[in-house]
Specification:
Strand order of the largest sheet: 2-1-3
Number of strands: 3
Radius of gyration: 21 Å
Mean pLDDT: 85
Order of helices and strands: EHHEHHHEHHHHH
Structural class: mainly alpha
Shape: globular
Length: about 300
């Protein structure tokens, strides 16, 4: 049997946004602005939650964990993406690519399950209010946060180990970071098994959290409908709107990006989706929770008032 010989690939080069030509400088300015706002927003959210005693509740603990996770998540991808818009054809080592992909997968999955934990928190608060402090104690919060990170860690080990066991023939990644599909395309051999692994993992980390959140909100809706006054119903549901908004955008983008049929892949659409879930979605968290959440707005006002006085 003839043995196949492959040239060892030691580094990759990102094509990034080269298809946009001279507009890359404009993209750099736009993405840098959004990135600064994202970092500032998430840092402010975490700081306010840590400083203000009124926000020392499970819901805001999960929110601070989500903001922290998304801050690190963007740090892994966006700075290199911004530099590639100015300094073209910057290489990344094979080990560097594997590390970026690993951290990206860990934190992306961690964010998915943190949103699920936040949905469970809303379920307990609305459906079992008298037992809320008993159920959502510090131990339960720690278990939910560690469990979210643990699931991300296990899935990342599985996906990245399978990915970098492949031999690579190409060196040009048609993307702006080491995402799974663009790197997989560079393999010299059939990637059917890797595609199955990726689809199973993607289905698990999207469908399971969405299913759990959906069940939580079914119970929440039934509980809200039992409230006699319309004002009470609106006030109760208002505590869920911020979480629901983030969930819809987050899982909507993730589903389209990772569960769509292979035949529907196109470079332009993939770049647009990737920009959405790596730059836009992380900005959504602080914007939604600061503009739509009265408690966070009040905490910000108190913090600003103290500094002024």
């Amino acid at each position: 049997m003839q043995r196949m010989n492959f040239t060892e690939v030691t580094e990759f080069i990102f094509l990034g946004f080269s298809i946009f030509g001279k507009h890359q400088i404009t993209l750099f300015v736009v993405f840098l602005t959004v990135y600064i706002l994202t970092l500032a927003g998430n840092v402010i959210i975490v700081t306010v939650i840590c400083v203000d005693q009124h926000l020392h509740t499970p819901m805001y603990f999960f929110l601070s964990m989500l903001a922290s996770s998304e801050t690190v998540y963007t740090l892994i991808i966006v700075p290199r993406m911004l530099s590639s818009l100015i300094l073209h054809n910057q290489p990344i080592s094979l080990a560097g690519c594997a590390a970026q992909m690993f951290l990206f997968v860990v934190l992306a999955i961690n964010n998915c399950f943190l949103l699920t934990a936040m949905g469970f928190d809303r379920y307990v608060a609305i459906c079992k209010p008298l037992r809320y402090t008993v159920i959502m104690n510090k131990g339960m919060c720690a278990v939910l946060v560690c469990g979210s990170f643990g699931i991300g860690l296990v899935m990342a080990v599985l996906q990245v180990t399978a990915m970098f066991s492949l031999p690579f023939c190409g060196t040009v990644v048609d993307h702006f970071f080491c995402d799974i599909h663009p790197v997989m395309k560079l393999s010299c051999i059939d990637t059917t098994i890797n595609e199955i692994i990726n689809y199973v993992v993607s289905s698990f980390v999207i469908c399971v959290p969405v299913g759990l959140i959906l069940i939580s909100y079914i119970f929440i809706i039934f509980s809200i409908l039992k409230i006699a006054s319309s004002k009470g119903r609106k006030k109760t549901f208002a505590t869920c709107t911020s979480h629901l908004t983030v969930v819809i955008v987050h899982y909507g983008c993730a589903s389209i990006a990772y569960l769509k049929p292979k035949s529907e892949n196109s470079v332009g659409k993939d770049l647009l989706l990737s920009v959405t879930y790596t730059i836009i979605t992380p900005l959504l968290n602080p914007v939604v929770y600061s503009l739509r959440n009265k408690e966070v707005k009040d905490a910000l006002c108190r913090a600003v008032g103290k500094n002024i006085s």
